[in-house]
Write a structure and sequence with these properties.
By secondary structure, the chain is mostly helical. It contains 17 helices and 2 strands. It has one domain.
Length: 371
């Protein structure tokens, strides 16, 4: 948001409308990612477990959006890298201005989800169980992102040291290394040895993790803008990268007698392969398109206002989606639309509902400081 907002989803200095567009599309992907069998895992309904074959082209058509939606979190970290890594801040200021705010937000929203779970399930809960969940794996599954982001902020000064000294060659080397380590090697190990032979786990590449790789790529591809030729190359590679992921997904589905969300980890095990290519392509394409186009002032203000609400939508979207009213809305939508399209309509309804709620909540001065 403008002003003194949290920089993960908005910026308090010169405003970049391309980041608002990236945030808005990414949060729609996040909502879709949480639709489970209704949308995100819908493609498995078109796979015949008895004959291990694809029943319909809907299998591919509904799998591709699910694969693509996984770029949302990397894109958020890339935006943060582009906005934060070029700044100069002391350790004290980072803790006071950034980390403390996210800890407060995490605590507040965890209380909200803890109360909601208590009221909806009726299970006995106490303050000790709350703090144990808060300390371990989080009150709500989707809050893992906040934990990861707080971790990024804690190591932010050290990532900045790398960013300030990184060259254009270093940025491309980082991307190449990620493609090999996170994509080529896992696929090769599976195809050639069925993972019986894997790279030594102690040979770790921590810098290629979520909180290092994507902020550095976001910063690097902002500091060193890619040429049109490079953007085309990235786009072609991104499209091609989906093919092996889909093939490996089909291979993973073979032998599963009953497919449901309990097998999610096995089915989508290769979806992170070449994810950096797809996320980076989306990032640079939006930046390139906005820089080439003259966006009107009215459109800028609308996008800026919506973009400033994205963090709140992320926090409250799951709560809104899971209430009974929206379950009934989905049933009504499915009565008049194909099931898969009905889910996407619901995604936009949840988005707009959360947007309206967050917009109103942000009118409260104290809350606006955190959202």
């Amino acid at each position: 948001m403008a002003g003194k907002g949290i920089v993960m989803f908005a910026e308090g200095r010169e405003h970049h409308i391309e980041y608002d567009i990236l945030r808005i599309v990414s949060i729609l992907f996040v909502i879709y990612n949480h639709t489970c069998e209704d949308g995100y895992f819908f493609f498995t309904q078109f796979y015949d477990t008895n004959t291990t074959r694809v029943i319909s082209l809907w299998f591919y058509g509904t799998m591709i959006p699910s694969i693509l939606c996984k770029i949302s979190v990397p894109v958020f970290f890339m935006i943060s890298g582009a906005l934060l890594l070029g700044r100069e801040e002391s350790f004290v200021l980072i803790w006071k201005k950034r980390i403390s705010r996210y800890i407060i937000v995490l605590l507040a929203v965890s209380v909200l989800y803890f109360i909601n779970d208590f009221l909806s399930s009726g299970n006995e809960s106490d303050i000790m169980s709350f703090f144990i969940l808060l300390y371990t794996n989080g009150i709500s599954r989707h809050l893992w992102f906040l934990y990861s982001y707080i971790g990024f902020l804690i190591v932010l000064p050290f990532v900045r040291y790398i960013a300030h000294n990184i060259t254009r060659t270093g940025v491309y080397y980082l991307l190449f290394l990620s493609i090999i380590i996170n994509g080529v090697i896992p696929i090769a190990q599976f195809c050639l040895t069925k993972n019986e032979i894997i790279l030594a786990p102690d040979l770790s590449f921590e810098i290629l993790g979520l909180t290092f790789l994507y902020p550095l790529l976001g910063y690097g591809f902002t500091k060193y803008s890619p040429s049109k030729k490079m953007i085309i190359t990235l786009s072609v590679l991104s499209v091609l990268s989906v093919v092996p992921v889909m093939i490996l997904t089909i291979i993973q589905l073979e032998g599963i007698e009953i497919i449901n969300m309990s097998q999610e980890e096995a089915v989508v095990g290769f979806w992170s392969c070449f994810e950096e290519l797809r996320a980076l392509t989306f990032f640079v394409l939006i930046k390139y398109a906005v820089n080439r186009r003259n966006v009107g002032n009215a459109s800028k203000e609308i996008l800026k206002e919506i973009g400033s609400c994205v963090f709140g939508i992320y926090l409250l979207g799951d709560l809104i989606k899971n209430i009974t009213l929206f379950k009934l809305v989905l049933i009504v939508l499915k009565a008049g639309l194909p099931d898969y399209f009905a889910v996407w309509v619901l995604v936009f309804i949840v988005f707009l509902t959360a947007l309206g709620l967050v917009y109103l909540i942000r009118k409260i001065p104290l809350v606006r400081k955190f959202l």
